[in-house]
């Protein structure tokens, strides 16, 4: 009789251990939540076995993108634990929150009759309906987990909502655990009247080593893992000091990888030629630095701008944020204000009057005798001059409505214009344009206006 001998040295054992779950499930869970093994191990210890009563409430906190929501969703789904997951930003009132929990409970129990709508006005109604929802044998035999994401929104609801959720196990006499996920510490939650203290767990920020490990897992199959890991190392070397948000870094990695691969795809370099690869990707990463977190344009638009190097170079490092958010006529108002600030009043007839007659160039300007207005700084101008220039540079007639005047106020609020003098002057308000030449050129380009042609210093 032959005895089969298993070589256990080739079997990978998980770092997570729990008697209630098979090793294969824990190994899969460990691969899905890298760099969060200690937090998951502690949660498994607190949860206990399926039929055990767990801690009544757990408070998990940490900065943005520290893996709180993802870890909880992955943990509960992989272990197939009955749970309800609710975002408190979406359910912004207590009624919406309680009704959403009850609606999701219906899907947890196949035996329960599903209704189209659940009405729940108070927490007393919620406790009664909750007992009915978990009355099935399947939910009574194991712990039910209610996860409230973005739990800091509970502080804006009625004063009894947060203390009641913390004691839901006691109020319902059912095996239920409420898990609160938040970006702020528990001390900012605790009511003045006191409440049941939850079990608190902190999720620290990912270190640069953690980010390197997590981001390197998403390497495309057509390239080697070492090649993609070297790319992630370059990416983190550029962005880690200004951005440690895992989601944003994942977006940046996916957005710029095609540019990093270009020399390899063209046959100009191999995967180990790090010098050529860095030289090719460096200017594009610097441009991407200017729009971190902004999401002003889609990924396809960004790739189009990457290909159009000449146009991008004309922006001179300006972020698209400088002009995208301005309405159409606000852009022309800002251009008119810039022209009024840097052009002498006597030149308005030359630039903005269609039939101004012949003006002798020698009398009009002597370049070597005059000082640059851009060196002297912006000059104040009255409101009527601003509107006159606006009417001249805009093709279609613009009526002086309240909308135009409100846009001027908005430009002042944005500090693109500044008011000069006191508000009690009889001759009306006076303004000064505070933006730079590069800024106004970028704005003018978006409306196809050649601002240089109308500036006295560039004649």
Describe the structure.
By secondary structure, the chain is an alpha/beta fold. Helix content is 46%, strand content 8%. The chain has 22 helices and eight strands. The strands form two sheets. Strands 2-3-4-1-5 form a five-stranded parallel β-sheet, with helices on both faces. The protein has a three-stranded antiparallel β-sheet with strand order 6-8-7.
Q: Show unreliable segments.
A: 1-13, 310-324
What about the largest sheet? 5 strands, parallel
Whole-number mean pLDDT: 82
Helix content: 40-55%
CA radius of gyration is: 32 Å
Q: Main sheet: which strands, in order across?
A: 2-3-4-1-5
Number of helices: 22
SSE string, helix = H, strand = E?
Answer: HHEHEHHHEHHEEHHHHHHHHHHHEHHEEH
Q: Helices and strands in order, then pairings?
A:
Layout: H1 23-32, H2 37-47, E1 57-61, H3 68-78, E2 83-87, H4 94-108, H5 123-133, H6 137-140, E3 144-149, H7 161-166, H8 168-172, E4 176-182, E5 199-202, H9 208-216, H10 225-239, H11 246-265, H12 274-289, H13 299-307, H14 309-314, H15 321-324, H16 328-342, H17 348-352, H18 361-364, H19 373-376, E6 381-382, H20 383-393, H21 402-413, E7 417-420, E8 430-433, H22 437-446
Parallel strand pairs: 1-4, 1-5, 2-3, 3-4
Antiparallel strand pairs: 6-8, 7-8
Helix pairs in contact: 4-5, 9-10, 10-11, 10-12, 11-12, 16-20, 16-21
């Amino acid at each position: 009789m032959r005895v089969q001998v298993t070589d256990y040295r080739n079997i990978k054992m998980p770092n997570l251990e729990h008697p209630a779950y098979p090793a294969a499930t824990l190994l899969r869970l460990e691969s899905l939540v890298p760099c969060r093994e200690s937090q998951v191990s502690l949660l498994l210890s607190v949860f206990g076995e399926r039929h055990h009563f767990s801690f009544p409430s757990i408070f998990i906190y940490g900065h943005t993108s520290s893996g709180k929501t993802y870890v909880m969703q992955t943990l509960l789904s992989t272990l197939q634990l009955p749970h309800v997951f609710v975002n408190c930003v979406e359910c912004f009132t207590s009624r919406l929150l309680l009704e959403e929990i009850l609606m999701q409970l219906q899907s947890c129990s196949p035996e329960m009759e599903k209704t189209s709508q659940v009405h729940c006005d108070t927490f007393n109604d919620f406790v009664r309906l909750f007992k009915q929802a978990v009355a099935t044998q399947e939910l009574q035999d194991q712990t039910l987990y209610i996860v409230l994401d973005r739990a800091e929104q509970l502080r804006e609801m009625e004063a009894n909502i947060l203390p009641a959720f913390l004691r839901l196990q006691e109020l319902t006499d059912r095996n239920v655990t409420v898990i609160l996920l938040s970006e702020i510490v528990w001390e900012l939650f605790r009511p003045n009247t006191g409440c049941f203290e939850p079990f608190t767990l902190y999720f620290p920020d990912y270190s640069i080593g953690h980010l390197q490990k997590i981001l390197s897992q998403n390497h495309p199959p057509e390239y080697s893992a070492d090649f993609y890991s070297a790319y992630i190392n370059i990416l983190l070397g550029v962005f880690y000091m200004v951005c440690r948000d895992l989601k944003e870094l994942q977006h940046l990695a996916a957005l710029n990888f095609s540019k990093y691969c270009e020399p390899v795809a063209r046959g100009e370099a191999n995967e180990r030629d790090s010098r050529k690869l860095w030289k090719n990707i460096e200017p594009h990463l610097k441009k991407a630095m200017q729009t971190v977190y902004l999401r002003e344009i889609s990924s396809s638009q960004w790739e189009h701008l990457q290909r159009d190097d000449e146009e991008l170079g004309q922006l001179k490092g300006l972020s698209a944020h400088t002009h995208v958010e301005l309405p159409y006529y606000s852009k022309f108002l800002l251009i008119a204000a810039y022209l009024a600030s840097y052009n002498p009043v006597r030149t308005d007839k030359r630039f903005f009057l269609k039939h101004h007659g012949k003006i002798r160039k020698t009398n009009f300007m002597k370049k070597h005798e005059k000082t640059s207005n851009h060196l002297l700084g912006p000059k104040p101008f009255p409101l009527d001059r601003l509107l006159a220039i606006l009417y001249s540079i805009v093709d279609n007639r613009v009526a002086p409505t309240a909308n135009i005047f409100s846009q001027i106020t908005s430009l002042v609020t944005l500090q693109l214009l500044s008011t000069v003098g006191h508000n009690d002057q009889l001759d009306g308000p006076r303004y000064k344009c505070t933006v730079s030449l590069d800024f106004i050129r970028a704005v003018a380009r978006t409306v196809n206006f050649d601002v240089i042609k109308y500036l006295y210093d560039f004649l």
